[in-house]
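S2.1 Query sequence (RNA-binding protein)
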Amino acid sequence: MATKPAPAAEKLRVDKYLWAIRIFKTRSQAADACDGGKVKLHGNSVKAAKAVSVGDKYDIRAENRKWTIEVTALLDHRVQYAEAIKYYVDLTPEEDQQMNQRVAASFHTGKRPSKIGRPTKSDRRDLDDFMRGDD
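Output structure tokens follow.
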């Protein structure tokens, strides 16, 4: 199924666009970010209802992340990530990209990484057998 960009005559809201290109998980999060001053166009905060135009450059701050994007095409509905990245160009400075990677790497889910740390019950049995010399 091929996705097509929004018609040029149609006005597209910033919050809907940011949700469609997968910067935010929900449209309400995108609207809250706009209303909270976390989305800027040319250094000025934009409201969620502001119309998006091709060529606009937005500075976006989300939880622990920063983006600088340029709109290359309009998209009014949510699509797969592989399709969504075709509708903007990521202009995020190198230092912000490195910070984003550090934050992602330090994210802790509470689960222990596989095969690291305390042995499983089966591993413990194998280790005990090895130490006793059993085969």
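The chain has five helices and five strands. The helical segments are 14-20, 27-35, 81-84, 94-106, 121-132.
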